[in-house]
Amino acid sequence: MEIPVSEFVVRFMERLGIRHIFGMPGAHILPVYDALHHASIHTVLAKHEQGAAFMAGGYARASERIGACIATAGPGATNLVTGIANAYADRLPVLAVTGETSTHIFGKGGLQESSGEGGAIDQVALFQGITRYARLVERTDYLPNVLGQAARILRSRDPGPVLLSFPFNVQRERIEEQRLEEIAVPSLQSKGALDGDRLERLCEHLLAARHPVIVAGYGCIRAGAQELVERLSRRLNAPVASSLKAKGVIDEESPLALGSLGVTSGGHARRHILERADLLLFLGAGFNERTSYTWDQALLNGRILLQVDRDPGQLEKAFHADVALAGDVAEVLEGVLRRLGDRPEPEAAPSPAGEGKRQAGRDFLSGFGLVARFFERLEERFPGPLMVFDDNIIFAQNLFQVSSRNRYFPNSGISSLGHAIPAAIGARFVQEAPAFAIVGDGGFQMCAMELMTARNYRIPLNVVLFNNGTMGLIRKNQYQQYGGRYIDCDFVNPDFRLLAEAFGMEHRRVEREEEVDALFEELDLEEGLNLIEIVIDKDAFPDYRTRR
Question: Which of 53, 288, 442, 488 lies most in the core, judged by the most C-beta atoms within 10 Å?
Fold first, then answer.
C-alpha cells in the first residue's frame, strides 16, 4: 500500500520513539503537520521557532531521548539556527524537520524559496556546519537511506542534531508503506573494547598517587556514571571537582566535593589542586576555556595527568596526558574499581576538601545577599528532585549546592541568552520534576513570549528574573576593561508585575531577605506558573580577572 511521504516521515519519527515535536506550522510544511494530526506524536506550538529548537534541546537534555522540532521554509527554518547550533555544541540528539517550496519552482523565485538555486538562500547549507547530517530530500527513491542515516546519528553514543528538509511536492508524493522496514532504527551503539594496557597503567598511577583529584565532566552524567564516580572518590579518598555542566555529579554537600572548577567560580577547587594535588584524573571533561582558566598551565604542571573520554577527538586536545584512554566513562570506572579489588576504603574520615567552598562562593559574590538567600532557600525546599535551567550561571555556580537527586542545566552549548525558559518548558514535557528557569532581565526579553507556551499547555514553571536594568556581563566588562565607558548596556524594563498578570502568572518582587522567605511560603512552586523578580544592583560586579 502506498502512503504519502509526509505520513512516511511521521511513521519514521514514531519508530524513533519521538513523542513530542515543538514548532510552528507554515504553508510549506503543512502536509507533515496534517500527518501529525492522527499520529501518536504530540505537537507543541511555540511562539518562535528559536524557542521550539531550545525546547527540543531541553527535552533531550532532561531525558537523554530524541528531541524534535519542526518549521516551515525560509524564515521558519532560519529561526531554528541558534537553537540547533546550541544542540550541536551540546551534542544533543535533536531532529529538525523543515519544509521547502516545490521542486518545480526551484530557481524561479518562489515565496520563501530557500533551495540555493537562482540566487535563493541555501537553507540546508545554513545548517551543514551545525548538524551532524543535513539533507534536502528531493526524491523518494533514496528516502529510506536518508532516514536510516538520520536514525544512526540520532541513536549513536555521540549524537548531534539532524536536519531533514522536504519540498512541498515531495511531501505529497506517495511511497510504498513497506519501505519503512528498510530503515534500521538502531539501539544505542555498543561501548566498544577498552585498551587493557592503558587501563592497567591508569590504575597503577591512581594507586601510586598520594593526593589524587578527580575532574569530572558532563561525560560522567551522559554515561550515567555518577554513582561510580562517587565510589571511586571514596575508595581513593580523592576529592571531586566538576566542570560547570557536571555540577552535582556527586552531591555537593559531600566533604569530597570541591565544587565546580572554573574562571567564574569562587576558586575553591582551583586552590585545592594547586596546593595539594599530585594527580588529576579527567573523566569526560574537555578542559575547555571556562574550566581551565583559559588553559592555565599552573593547574597541570608537576602533576600526573590521566584522561578518559568516549570521544577520541577530545583526548589530549588541550594538554598532553600521561595516560589517555578512549572509552565509555562508566565502563572505565567499572574496570578501575574491579582492579582495585578488595583494597579497603581509607579508615580515616573522608578528606574535608569540600569545606570552605560555600563560603568561597559567598565571598566572591559578597554584594549579592538576596541572591544567596534565594539559593539557600531553594536547597532547603528542594533537596530533590528539581530541574534548574540557568542562563545566568555565575550565581548558581557559586551559591547553589546541587544534590545528587537534582539536575542542573547551565546554559552551555553556545551560551545563547533566551535559552533557559524554552529549554525548561521542553524538559517539563518529559520530566515531572519542579522546574526553575534562571534568567537576567535582558535575556528574559529574548524569550518572554514562550511563557504563553507554558500557559497554553499548562506547564508548571518558575522563572527567576534578576532585575538590574542592564546587560550585566557587558556592563561589568565595560567597567573593568573599558574605563566605565558604557554603551548599549542599560535599558528600561517593563513592569514585570503587569507582564506576569498578562501572562496569567503569579508574581513576586523581592527587594529584602524577608521577601525571599515569604515567596517560598506563599507560591505554589511545584505546579504553579510563577515569575520571581529579584532586584540587584547594576553596579555590583564579581571580579574574576584576578582568580588565577
Answer: 53
